[in-house]
């Protein structure tokens, strides 16, 4: 083996050990959210902190610097090694600036904060969570200042989830989208569109819902021999290893749509992770290209597939067997109900049109948290006011308001925009796909989901994070990120409603 | 702080980090047995291997040697520090002799072997498991040779589970017990005792059995806010942290006794772990005194409490409400059925009299595996012959024979004797307890299990492993380990049957 091949091998072994620690952090987190007995929370926080400290040491070691210094000057590196070095350099540069104690303190904090948030949400007690949120905001500000930024402090956080993204760019994309969506909702309200989702209200035993999730997993191609479905307060997907991609959901006994679409959403994430090339083990690239691209896959499955008329035609026989009360409804009635447009309070239950406004509210709040000195006491009323202004609805308590989502309690500020970006990437990907696979909707109706999965895997999944999100979307669609496809999709959906 | 106090503090912090790694190893193992998707097994094996390697490094580091060298010459150390130093020295001396690669290879092997064993048992295919068992035996022989021993190679392995125990000592205890038990069974057979357990055969939904397990947990004092009950192929108890002690069980829909007694057994282990003094964090002493003492607690709960007439008087109202078919039986009929004595093939379902013979068979086989060069091909027929000779029953396949137990696949050879020692310790502890708490059985009948738990916690649990097992039993009972109490108990049980 040549010297360079030996060095690559050495780097691969080093990164494999980092992947073991990441897998352990994942398992610790998954277990906390799904299984852990309540009194175990403090010790578990210490264990997380220990692991995070180990990962910190591995990320910032002399060895990593040695790999970077060795490979960086080499011009004709293969794509994968080049991407690996870019990634470890980015992590190194950022992490080495954060003192280890600050980092492990933060990890300890958020591992407790998530459980406090869960309790606060259950008890509708913002006061319980407030001091944790304040600390999380302060840490994020400090991190941003340490990372550095050109224009806005918030840019430094965005970059963690969507490489190269800025507030300026997001404003450029989100501001027109916000105007369009507020107008579309206004139009619907004026013309008096009546949401029909109440017809689905019924009794759907959790056990049967879970059984249906497994049927859907099989159809869509989410491999349950490399994954599993559990319940947790907030649904999530987590990668614990190349063949261990787990999702969680929460079921509502009166409404099966919420749990089903949430499951399909998470399966979109999980299918992405399950289909990244195994050759990328030990390269740091066995993850999605960005959070926005990741959300494009989950929302592709949830909205483009899961809310299509053809999907409901296909699953009608199965689901009406499992839930016989559905037999009194036609496919079209169910389809209309699933696609009801109704401004509501809960993001994860939102329809495709109002959803992005839920995100834009959070985005605007995050900018205030990070760029300005907003008082945590004021956050609930700011939240409520924005909901009233943009969506015309107002939370009656903090559990359905500021305490709604897990993200901030998990330490993530800057993640939310990914969801709306996911919608935009998704519509653009669909536009390309329809050119190459004009019978896309027929395939859905025939249950041929696997050919769709294969297209997505070949064009997106398998590459892991070899490419940056902007490289990837250009490679897939031939052009830069373009919000027009999603805006057109929204307009078309509303137009159809108004017919 | 004085220099010695600072050094103690430093050692505590060091050991705390080892405890984090042990907790992670526990979580990885628990997850493998309870949740992990099947295709994840290989990567998970690598993760286990990584953790084991970290623990190896921590156990054999220069730092540990420094602690030992510092504290060992100090005469007036407190009990806890003295015990800590004894323990880290023992681990250090043993582990430093094992090459790191050999150790991590072994951990990798057993993490795969357990899953292979599970499959082999399900498919009744000894051939599948055989090459793994051969390797596990070979590793154990090598370990024993490296650790060193005075008389028998097997002694070196026994010492891992029961400090200071030897084959000679076990022969001295087990040989007379074996004779007594074989004779008692003969007597029962001659006088024609008819086991009455068939009257309990029925339909017991898993959900209801699980619900009853939670009722029993509450009664006995197994805190489910610091624990949980799941299902797995082989029941076990695992400590993932000071407030995270989980048990697993397996339920039989036709027979609730098997799952119930298994649950009570594991709760005995879990109550032990939950009641070790929290002050022992960071000392390596937050574990049971030995495996034999641990089994004494689980079998105390299972047999002395769970098979007593008073226990069944107490739980009759609850259990006959949950399983109404039991209403046609009297408490005495259930009690007799639960205490049926019948030589059988499955250790975990065995009654109190025949149980120790199941252990003695395994003990004799382990001696052959380690002291002699027995061919793994011959193990199934040796197993079957011993069952025929001692218990008069013969397995019809390897799943209920040589493949029955998880222990060997988990790498443990030398563990089995602990179960029989547990019976012997347990009877001796009961003898002391009855002197101090003459109304012991009345308390059970009244459901006052917590005072019994408190006695055990005060006398045994809270000490963790500050004392060696022989120190502890002498401290509790005022004498050395004495098998006569258990032999008398067995004779009395059989006498009662023959009345």
TrEMBL record, chains A, B:
MF annotations from Gene Ontology: metallocarboxypeptidase activity; zinc ion binding
InterPro entries: Peptidase_M32_Taq
Pfam family, one: Peptidase_M32
Listed EC numbers: 3.4.17.19
Amino-acid positions noted as binding Zn(2+) in the UniProt annotation, renumbered to this chain: 265, 269, 295
Catalytic activity reported: Release of a C-terminal amino acid with broad specificity, except for -Pro
Cofactor(s) required, per the database record: Zn(2+)
Cofactor: binding details: Binds 1 zinc ion per subunit.
Keyword Transport: no
A GO BP annotation: proteolysis
Active site: 266
Family of the protein in this entry: Belongs to the peptidase M32 family.
Functional summary from the UniProt entry: Broad specificity carboxypetidase that releases amino acids sequentially from the C-terminus, including neutral, aromatic, polar and basic residues.
Name under which the protein is recorded: Metal-dependent carboxypeptidase
Gene transcribed to yield this protein: ypwA
């Amino acid at each position: 083996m040549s010297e360079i091949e030996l060095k690559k091998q050495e780097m691969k072994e080093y990164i494999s050990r980092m992947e073991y620690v990441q897998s352990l952090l994942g398992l610790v987190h998954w277990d906390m959210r799904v299984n852990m007995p309540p009194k175990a929370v403090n010790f578990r926080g210490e264990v997380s902190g220990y692991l995070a400290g180990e990962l910190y040491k591995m990320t910032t070691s002399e060895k990593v610097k040695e790999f970077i210094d060795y490979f960086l000057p080499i011009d004709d590196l293969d794509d994968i090694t080049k991407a690996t070095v870019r990634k470890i350099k980015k992590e190194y540069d950022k992490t080495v600036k954060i003192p280890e104690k600050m980092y492990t303190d933060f990890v300890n904090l958020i591992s407790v904060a998530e459980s406090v948030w869960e309790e606060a949400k259950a008890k509708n007690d913002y006061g319980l969570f407030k001091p944790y949120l304040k600390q999380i905001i302060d840490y994020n500000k400090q991190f941003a200042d340490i990372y550095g930024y050109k224009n806005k402090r918030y840019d430094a956080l965005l970059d963690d989830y969507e490489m190269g993204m800025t507030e300026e760019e997001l404003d450029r994309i989100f501001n027109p989208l916000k105007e369009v969506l507020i107008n579309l909702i206004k139009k619907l309200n004026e013309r008096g569109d009546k949401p029909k989702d109440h017809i689905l209200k019924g009794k759907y035993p959790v056990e049967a819902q879970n059984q249906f999730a497994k049927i859907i997993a099989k159809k869509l191609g989410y491999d349950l021999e490399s994954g599993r479905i559990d319940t947790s307060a907030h649904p999530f997907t987590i990668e614990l290893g190349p063949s261990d991609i787990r999702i969680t959901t929460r079921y509502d006994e009166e409404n099966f749509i919420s749990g089903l679409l949430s499951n399909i959403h998470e399966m979109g994430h999980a299918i992405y992770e399950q289909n990244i090339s195994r050759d990328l083990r030990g390269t740091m690239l066995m993850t999605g290209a960005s959070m926005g691209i990741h959300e494009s896959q989950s929302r592709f499955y949830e909205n483009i597939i899961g809310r299509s008329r053809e999907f409901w035609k296909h699953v009608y026989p199965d689901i009406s067997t499992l839930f016989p009360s559905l037999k009194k409804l036609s496919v079209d009635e169910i389809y209309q109900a699933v696609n009801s447009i109704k401004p509501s309070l809960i993001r994860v239950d939102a329809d495709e049109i109002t959803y992005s406004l839920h995100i834009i509210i959070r985005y605007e709040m995050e900018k205030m948290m990070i760029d300005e000195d907003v008082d945590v006491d004021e956050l609930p009323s700011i939240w409520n006011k924005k909901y009233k202004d943009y969506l015309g609805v107002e939370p009656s308590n903090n559990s359905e308001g500021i305490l709604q989502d897990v993200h901030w309690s998990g330490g993530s500020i800057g993640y939310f925009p990914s969801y709306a970006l996911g919608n935009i990437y998704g519509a653009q990907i669909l536009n390309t796909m329809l050119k190459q696979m004009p019978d896309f909707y027929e395939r859905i109706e025939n249950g041929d989901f696997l050919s769709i999965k294969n297209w997505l895997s070949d064009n997106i999944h398998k590459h892991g994070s070899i490419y940056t999100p902007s490289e990837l979307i250009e490679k897939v669609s031939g052009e830069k990120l373009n919000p027009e496809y999603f805006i057109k999709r929204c307009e078309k959906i509303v137009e159809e409603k108004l017919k």
